[in-house]
Amino acid sequence: NAGVTQTPKFRVLKTGQSMTLLCAQDMNHEYMYWYRQDPGMGLRLIHYSVGEGTTAKGEVPDGYNVSRLKKQNFLLGLESAAPSQTSVYFCASSYAGSGPFTDTQYFGPGTRLTVL
Amino acid sequence: RKEVEQDPGPFNVPEGATVAFNCTYSNSASQSFFWYRQDCRKEPKLLMSVYSSGNEDGRFTAQLNRASQYISLLIRDSKLSDSATYLCVVNIIDFNKFYFGSGTKLNVKP
User: What is the mean pLDDT of chain B?
Assistant: First the structure.
């Protein structure tokens, strides 16, 4: 049981390049999330998904796209990378139970992205 | 205005000390509350959920005050291994969104 995994762990891009970050979970969770974490800003939600084939925008969606073609995978794409997208990206998943306290988030180890 | 606000610290305390962190949230529709721990350059991990009646897990006690819209975390008998950043998290369940504070850094010194 690997939990939540992310690939790659590190990446350096040049401005204007594109890339896709992959998140995979083996816990059969319905909900998946992409966050970015910047110094002093905490984690900010980029996009999220409440089930296979569905996605929704979070707080900071501009410049990113996502897809959830399979329940266990959630992909984050950068179409044209900018230096402002230099950050640590975390993926998370949670079980969609009923009521509060069933929605604990489990995080992947993160991807450190630098855009030059 | 941020959804969740925390004192960034750092809180520098000696081993064995008791330390408390507070966190305020702005949305009264927030329905579930958590404290996460994040070690340097690692992913956040759930420390404990916060229940309306308050709850305790070993040396850790969490409290929720809905009227004043804040939650707190108390750590007793601090250990060196408690050194980390503590993130306050609230969830507005209807929107399936989690809001994270920027974290409070704790340094426990020998």
Answer: 91
